Amino acid sequence: MAPYESESAGRRKATRYVVPVAVVGVAAATIGLVPALADSGNPDLPKLSAQQLIEKIAKSDVQQMSGTVKISTDLGLPSLGGMAGGFTPGAGGSSEGGDGKAGSSADPQSKLMELASGTHTLRVAADGPDRHKLSVLDNAAEYSVIHNGDEVWAYDSASNEAYHSKGAAAAGDRAEKHSKGETPKGVPATPKELADEVLKASGKTTSISVEGTSQVAGRDAYKLLVKPKQAGSTVGGITISVDAKTGVPLKFTLTPAGGGKAVVDAGFTKVDFAKPAASTFDFTPPKGTKVTEGDDLKAQDKSHAPKDLPKDLPKGMPKELKDAQGGGMNDMKVIGEGWTSIAELKLPGGQGLPTGGSGSGDVPPEAQKFMDALGDHVTGKFGSGTVFSTRLVNALITDDGKVYAGAVTKDALVKAANAAQ
Predict the structure, then answer these.
(1) What is the full DSSP assignment across 238-291?
(2) What's the half-sphere exposure (Cβ side, CA atoms, 13 Å) at 410?
(3) Which of the residues 70, 203, 306, 392 has the least number of beta carbons within 10 Å of its own beta carbon?
(4) pLDDT tens digits, residue range 195-205?
(5) Could you give the 3-state DSSP secondary structure of residue 352?
């Protein structure tokens, strides 16, 4: 949902805010932000408590605005050359699906996932609950999603392809999300979306305080600091800069417990709370544009859906994990709580990563060396396995096919695996 759109869920009392580890994991996996502009001063503002500032965010009802957001991520992943490029309009989708059926490089559901890596500049605009626009800029190319009334257009200038849906019922679940002004699940693209995912309820595992003031995009702001109380989390802290006048989050920074530059840093470089021009939300496909209708993609989604999904999926499981379960992963459960929560699940087949050798299912020695370089071999009461690490989210894959993952340290994963025996 756009960062300026009022949400009934956002009006919860401050005592109900919390920071689920699942949210941190999703943010780490799917967003990227560029280091925001340095604070240009520390304005003298009236003192506010943490609860007062959280309530100010929750009560913010800004529905008209426009601005520019700089976004980037630094998870510390190894470079894979051309296998892991950043966002390039036109490069993320294909006009042809793997089965030869036509798709669209402009489809928002997949296109906006490309914000998961690299450095990006976004332009955002809103005029009430029924008009939104988000554009991702890349040199001479641009990718835009425009929601105007009951219509959603997405256009990729690099490939000259467009996605169109009219009416939520006609375009299916995918279009319904966008016709309500929402970006795909797991793709928060602005400071407010990030802040909303962090500030959902309150618990004993989280420390929240006001840590001074700053200026962001030329506006006075309070700095809300959110930190885990628990040991073992890879999250050092989250700073949310909140506009002193409107209560809109203007900047979001997630720093790792290990120190160094921010893992996630999103900030407005320009922001205007005036009503955008009506023409901002107008769109007509340029001549020669290939247009894919939402109904067509809905039909493709249904044709590719697994036929044997279990009926007893855990309540509250993220869609991505449900999809994985449909592919063979099962028995997902959560160990612990708060920032140190760890997801445990089983790989299909009941075995871990393939090993080098000549046996069936083994990998070539060169590939094995590459995999070994990416992970650390660990042992414990659980047996042995490999830990794959980023600066935020780590995962232990045991030799007997179990996976333990979370925004926690390697030692915390080994401890959880030992305790599960």
Answers:
(1) EEEEEETTT--EEEEEEEETT-SS-SEEEEEEEEE-SPPPGGGG---PPTT-EE
(2) 15
(3) 306
(4) 777 776 456 78
(5) coil
